[in-house]
Each structure stands twice: as C-alpha cells, then as structure tokens.
Amino acid sequence: MTATRVLYLLASAAPPVLGIGGVIEQAKARGWDVCLGLTPTAAHWLDDQLPALEALTGHPVRSRYKLPGEPDVWPRADVGVVSPATFNTINQWALGITDKFVVGFAAEAIGKGIPLITMPCVNAAYVQHAQFPHSIAALRGMGVTVLYGEGGFVPNEPGQGRPDAYPWHLALDAAASAAASVGGGGDPGRARTPPVGG
C-alpha cells in the first residue's frame, strides 16, 4: 500500500514504547507514512533500536527541538498520535509546559488544527492525583481525542501493567477516523498544515 498520509507518532517513556517498532509496522500497513518522536527518556530506553526505527520509518527519530535555521526533516503532519502518554506528558501538555519536543509539537498542533489523539499509560495510583482528571478534561476541551476510560486505556494497579495488552489498535483506528474527517483521509494533493519545527 502506498502511504499518502503522514502520521506523527509521539511517544513517552512507558513500557509499551518498547514495542513501538511493531506499531510502526501496523501503521505503515494501514497506509501511513510514520514519523517517530520520543521524549528524551523514551529515546534513551530505545537507544539501541534507533537506527532500525529510522530505517523502518525512513525519517530521523526526533527527541529534541531543531535549532533555529535548521531545515525540517519530517513531512507535514496529517494526524498526530501522542501514545503512550505518561502522567508527566499528559499534565505538561495540558498545562502548556513545552520543554520537551513531543509536548511542544502537541501543544502547537492544537492551535494549527492538526487532529490529535492521545492514549495515556498510567497506573491507578497516578490517576488519584488531583491534576490528572483536570488535564484529561482540559485536553478534551481543546479538541484532543483522549482514549481514556471506557473505549480506551483503563489504568492498571501499580506493578500490574501488561505492556503487550496496551490497545494500540484503538489509537490507530482513531487516527484513521480523524484523517477521514478532515478531507478524505489520504488525498496527497490536499493542503496540509506546515510542520512544527519547534
């Protein structure tokens, strides 16, 4: 299948990120041209896989903002998926704390009208923190599709997570729906929002 849509897959350091190569393969099979962005910790976890991931996507894996004047190395995004999204990533994004490239892209993309999907990966202890439900509500209020709770990620008890059971397919399904709703889901001639270089 020829990829005509560009998916920014932006991942933070939760255990499901260790299987991100398989997710990229699934996305490519669905017709996506995938660009992978990682938080610094996620990039550290995947350090030995980065060359293979770059070969798989055909794009540099990004974990830092580009320097002023540097060219964009990714094509323009059709859809962004922030997943797995840790407690820290969700809260920073909702609060507009953009020291990380992944969060900075996601924050700016809201204003640029790029469809965004996020699926948290947090345990049941973290979600008791008072800020977390406010952050989920804030992101939803900004138009982000948040796959959390029924029909999305359901928190596990601390120490009982199963990375292999993380429902990646829900994020990819939501990305496909978002692409279809904003202009045919794959017309390579349609206008796209310029990339966020940071």
TrEMBL record:
<feature type="domain" description="Flavoprotein">
    <location>
        <begin position="13"/>
        <end position="125"/>
    </location>
</feature>
<dbReference type="InterPro" id="IPR036551">
    <property type="entry name" value="Flavin_trans-like"/>
</dbReference>
<dbReference type="InterPro" id="IPR003382">
    <property type="entry name" value="Flavoprotein"/>
</dbReference>
<dbReference type="Pfam" id="PF02441">
    <property type="entry name" value="Flavoprotein"/>
</dbReference>
<protein>
    <submittedName>
        <fullName>Flavoprotein</fullName>
    </submittedName>
</protein>
